[in-house]
Amino acid sequence: MGSSELERERDYVAGLYRRLHELQRETEEQLDAVRAQSVGGGHQARSERDSFARLYEDRILQLREVGERLAFGRLSVDGDDGGGDQLIHRYIGRIGLRDQDRQPILLDWRVPQASAFYQATAKTPMGARARRHLISQGKKLIRIEDEIFDPDLLDESSVQLQGEGALLTALSAQRTGRMSDIVATIQAEQDRIIRSELRGILVVQGGPGTGKTAVALHRAAYLLYSHRERLRSSGVLIVGPSRSFLRYIEAVLPSLGESGVVLASVGQLFPGVEATAEDSPAVAGTKGRLRMAPLLARAVASRQRVPEAPQPIEVNGETVMLEPELVASAIAKARETGRPYNEARLVFVKTALDALTRRLAAQLRDQGNTVDDSDLPMLREDLRTASDARIALNTAWLPLTPQKLLQDLYARPHWLAELTPDWSAEDRHRLQRERSAPFTISDIPLLDEAAELLGETVVQDVAAKRAAKQQRKRDLENAEQAIANMGVGGMVDARSLAEGFAEFADAGTTAERAASDRTWAYGHIVVDEAQELSPMQWRLLLRRGPSRSFTIVGDIAQAAAASAAETWEHAIAPLIGRGAEGERWRREELTVNYRTPTQIAAAAESMAIAHGLPVTRSVSVRESEWPIEVVPDALAATRLALEVDGTVAVIAAADRLAELHRSLGAELGDRVGLGAEGLASDVTVLSAQEAKGLEFDSVVIVDAAAIVAESERGAAALYVAMTRPTQRLVLAEGGLPAAPEATAR
Ligand SMILES: Nc1ncnc2c1ncn2[C@@H]1O[C@H](COP(=O)(O)OP(=O)(O)OP(=O)(O)O)[C@@H](O)[C@H]1O
Q: What percent of the chain has pLDDT over 70?
């Protein structure tokens, strides 16, 4: 390949950057023009103008975000003449660009024509004749790499890696503590998953380092692009295991030009409560089980109480008796509505007050007073505000928040025992705790379940939501009208513009509104490290995604949580319900390990298999320069790890972390950080749980046997720890523990 070819490509890429800057300028001018427009004083007109401005601002931001590596590929396909002599070159990049004549000069990687760039092989060229990778450093094109799809050159035996040189360049880059996008080097098996249809439940199983997280994030970007109309207003939720994990992945989607996504850890899924602490595995296991749902339902139902004796109600010097029968019949009537607890309570109060008013009126008449129908509202109001009535009715049916319900349940052992006659004392004991203790990650789905049963505490919330929905409908009509008036049909769509109105009106962007609304229904949900989720967490997610459009990625063998399932069928059962399961979900596998070198991956797999874990085998694409070493102490091991440029993780059992942080810090100074907060340091001391989903150039495992012994699924935790390094693994304070005699998990 001549260097003139590289020059030619550099010219082409330079042309693309020029066009990008031109478009930036044009959009900035359009923005200025919109801002300068005089639109009179009407609120509607102003908000329309502002949302046009917002659209242009978004586009400018998107054009600027692209920054580097604008174009990374070229696909050569046969020209229209069919003779095959004339080749058409399609350039593939991070965004699509057109020239001044509106001819495409760069295809967005997500358009259907670009899929051949990722999926074509010599065996199935998908109409392509050749593929070229454009490898850049920053904005500078430094190398090109060609693949010609010639069937004679096929080698059936090896793993088919697409653009091997470009891929290995990407993989050998030093880790930074932040995940980066893989858009230039997506592999065929990954691309098929990324482009899989939006509908239904897709489960992606793969061993460590097979790109599950990367694929899940690129799939979110792909879906947002391909189903923009639908997903822009409903939003996409990405759920990860921890805040440290979210920090690790949070830059990927913005680098792909997508920002309208809600990222949440499992501790952040109930608006208003942010849980970071986790219970012990046994307690988390109890709280994660499905039988918590009927328990909460029983707890809610038992909160209505009929008084044993009549209650005197003083009102304006008159005493009227509130009979148990009256309360019982008002409760029955309210329950009949089938509404959630707090909403049904309003029916109860209304029914009870009406009956009490009638009783008071009759009593007054009996005493010779004249009471006609027009007096009833006033009597009712007197009763409503009488403190006796308030106390009596509240005692019968108290308004409740999910927080209060759960705190009561945990802090009142007798009540809990009444509600759980078939539970063991041990299980019950696991739920007990102080009323003031902060909520844990395992409490989040229970709070959500309780909120579902209780409904809104304030009626206005229901009314406000209804009003907001109607407002959005009006906004959409106004947006259509505005587009027609301004003559910009085809450039902007009404839905995006209407979203803009809402953003300015009150509640922020779709993502912000979605994140703060428990009843929000997302258009799509991506769940990472999904093997860890408990049945109760799945129930919560189903409420957030009632359309059952899910991408679920994980590795069953890495499951460390006590409440995690042992197969995907079991794991997602709460999501599928009792339908024809086979038809409702599909499963894909990833089989190439892009992270862990062969030798380390092989040792990790053997260890896991010896402990009976259901490992999905994969093939590593890297080799390690270093053998796995075993050294006596953690400091010596960390020094060895630091010989490799890049990041180091020191992984140990949870009760060793503080002490290791201190002792290593004493020798290595502030290069050593602790836990999620310490991830920016050269050396981070953390537990296997905290390391989940992350990667480091080198890893030191301190006392591997203690990690295995630490929990019921300790072998899975060690498997996670061993598969974090991209280059070097050092074991300190003992090698790998021997496999147990019986290999039961
Ligand atoms: N096609 C690709 N091109 C370049 N890098 C890739 C590709 N696929 C995956 N990688 C890289 O491999 C590493 C592992 O990917 P990722 O973290 O997504 O794996 P995972 O399957 O989620 O792993 P784990 O189960 O261990 O959490 C990341 O650094 C990712 O960027």
A: 89
* C-alpha distances in Å from residue 568, one per residue of 189, 506, 539, 574, 617: 20, 41, 15, 11, 17
- b/e string for 180-218 if b means 16 or more Cβ within 10 A? ebbbbbbbebbbebbbbebeebbbbbbbbbbbbbbbbbb
- Report which protein residue has its CA nearest ligand 1's atom 12: 594
* Residue ID of nearest Cα to ligand 1 atom 25: 208
Binding site residue list for ATP: 206-213
CB 502 within 8 A of CB 475: yes
| Residues facing residue 648 across a β-bridge | 683, 698
State the first-to-last Cα distance of the chain, in angstroms, to the nearest integer: 55
Question: What six digits make up the tokens of 410?
Answer: 């945990």
In the block, residue with structure tokens 């109480």: 305
Bridge partners, 237 (sequence order):
262, 525
Q: How far is the C-alpha of 463 from the C-alpha of 469, rounded, in Å?
A: 10
Give backbone dihedrals phi and psi of 347, rounded to 5 degrees, phi first. -65, -40
Distance (angstroms) between ligand 1 centre and the Cα of 366 equals 83
Q: State the Cα–Cα distance between residues 656 and 100, nearest whole angstrom.
A: 63
Q: Specify the DSSP class assigned to residue 507.
A: T
Q: Tell me the average pLDDT across 146-165.
A: 65
Among 272, 267, 743, 295, CA closest to 533? 267
Structure tokens at 136: 């850049």
Residue entry with tokens 């939720």? 237
| Residue of the CA atom closest to atom 23 of ligand 1 | 209
- In the block, tokens 């209505």 appear at 304
Phi-psi region of 164 (alpha: psi -120 to 50; beta: other; left: phi over 0): alpha
User: Do 60 and 28 contact (CB within 8 A), yes or no?
Assistant: yes
Q: Is 593 within 8 Å of 208 (Cβ atoms)? A: yes
- Supply 328's token pair: 């019982």
> Which helix H or strand E contains 377, and what residues bound it?
helix 376-385
Would the CA dihedral through 411, 343, 309, 357 be positive or negative?
positive
DSSP for 661-679 reads HHHHHHHHGGGEEETGGGT
For the chain, give the number of residues: 745
Q: At what angle do helices 444-454 and 535-544 cross, to 10 degrees?
A: 50
Å from CA of 288 to ligand 1 middle: 29
pLDDT one-digit tens code per residue, 120-129: 887 788 888 8
Global pTM?
0.85
The answer to ipTM > 0.90 is yes
